[in-house]
């Protein structure tokens, strides 16, 4: 009797989350002071428009 092992298909293995290549910047949680200042300005502009 032949000794057969169950194996997943190549496509199934490659599509699992742990076997995918990381996307550069996808997990980047850092942001610059300029980005923070812009977000703060945008938020303040939105607040002032709602009040008027």
TrEMBL record:
Residues 1-29 are annotated as: Disordered. This is YfhD family protein. It comes from Paenibacillus thailandensis.
